[in-house]
Amino acid sequence: MIDELKIKARELLKNKQVDLIIGYQRASDGVLAMPCFVDREEDVDKLIWDVYCVYNLANYLKDYAGQKIGIIAKPCDVRSIVVLLQENQLRRENVYIIGVECSGVIDEKRLRLGAKDIQESATFGVKCKSCKSSTPSICDYLFKDKEKKGKISEDKDEYESVRKLEVRSSLERLKFWEEEFSRCIRCYACRQVCPMCYCPKCVADQAMPAWFSKGANLKGNLSWNLIRAIHLGGRCIDCGECERVCPVGIPLRELNKKIEKDIKELFKYEAGANVEQKPLLASFDKDDPGDWIK
Amino acid sequence: MKENKEDREPKIVGFLCNWCSYAGADLAGTSRIEYPPNIRIIRVPCSGRVNPLFVLKCLMDGADGVLISGCHIGDCHYSEGNFYARRRFAILKRLLEYLGIDSRRFQMSWVSASEGDKWSKLIKELVQEIKQAGPNKSNDKKHD
């Protein structure tokens, strides 16, 4: 089964269709997966694809601008590639998307906490439970998973937790977020792992002007997390990597999902859905809601 | 030091577009229409020039409220700057609210160069609302 993927990868390298293939390989612990970069035919055998392949590899594409890259991408990863294409960060002809059918990947933290059976849906990432498609929207080659278990999506309201927070009082919300943000150590792992955070100089690193405090104090933390979310408005495709890597467990997806929900309501826009579409904040509609403006 | 909520004079930062709102506020002044002095005006070329970071920095550095004011839709000097601003800040407003920051603290308005009256009325209302919202908590020591 995986051989099909390897044959394709070998063929791409052999025909010089791509210079490099970004995929997954088994980590040294023999269980989890890690990213792997294959530029020689003999290394193709390292490639794997299974429920442990959680990383969004689109993050690496920006490091290889101008080169022809083959990338193994899940449906969510493909959405981030779509955003990069929309924003002219990539050329379509330079990226060969090997799409994989995906019925959810595991949640390492849950697994570590003792879930017994990896097929048990409790071990899957929370993002996977609200995922609507198991097939990538665009790809050059589709790797079909014959053992696919089908969607693990629970068809629940994907904004349930956002709504729950929304109905609480303003003070309760402030308290909730202050508690969460007070733990932030400003390691910027959320930024580093995000395929959409590609600014050569991040506002958080700017000194002239310094937009907010660099220290891990509440004010600076609140500013950083708010700005990170705002800068992803209309761009975040909910790959959930930021929340996954957060060492102090800040529920960053609750921020991203909130914006996702708002832009769906306000502008009927969905990030990463269509390459032809202009980015949300680089376009406008004459009939955008304006009733909140005096 | 205890202050009565209503007595305390709030500080409001206003980002006004050069072509409409700034001229509108100026008209209010030259027409001798009174409005509260709580607003500190920063002139920007267009409401589309305003970055969410500006708003955030004001709120974090002690302003009790922020107002962005620009030309009416369709009247933008640069044709479409205020369309972009409208989209951008609709998202910010909702997010601030979600984080538990009083939504009255961040407001937007369209004021044309001939609307001195509207400007004065707007600021009176704004100051009232922000007085009700109380002092901005980000000034508290625990936040530093």
- Annotation field: number of helices of chain A: 10
Strand content of chain A: 5-15%
| Sheet with the most strands: spatial strand order of chain B | 2-1-3-4
Helix content of chain A: 25-40%
Total domains of chain B: 1
Termini separation of chain A = 60 Å
Which consecutive residue ranges of chain A, at least 5 long each, have pLDDT under 50? Answer: none
Order of helices and strands of chain B: EHEHEHEH
The run of helices and strands of chain A is HEEEHEHHEHHHHHH
Distance between the termini of chain B: 20 Å
Largest protein-protein interface:
A-B, 43 and 36 residues
CATH architecture of chain B: 3-Layer(aba) Sandwich
Oligomer: heterodimer
Query: Strand order of the main beta sheet of chain A, please?
Result: 2-1-3-4-5
Strand content of chain B: 15-25%
Q: Any idea what the radius of gyration of chain A is? A: 20 Å
Could you walk me through the main structural features you see in this protein, from its secondary elements to its overall organization?
The complex is a heterodimer of chains A (294) and B (144). Chain A folds into two domains: 2-143, no CATH class; 160-282, no CATH class. Chain A has ten helices and five strands, in the order αβββαβααβαααααα. Chain A has helices at 2-14, 75-86, 108-112, 126-129, 160-166, 170-182, 189-192, 218-231, 241-245, 252-267; strands at residues 20-26, 33-38, 69-73, 95-100, 141-143. In chain A, β3 (69-73), α2 (75-86) and β4 form a beta-alpha-beta unit. The longest helix of chain A has 16 residues, at 252-267. The mean pLDDT of chain A is 90. Chain B has 144 residues and is an alpha/beta fold. Chain B has a single domain, classed as Rossmann fold (3-Layer(aba) Sandwich), CATH 3.40.50. Helices cover 38% and strands 16% of the residues of chain B. Chain B contains four helices and four strands. Chain B has helices at 21-30, 52-60, 81-98, 116-133; strands at 12-17, 39-44, 65-70, 106-110. In chain B, α1 links the parallel β1 (12-17) and β2 (39-44).
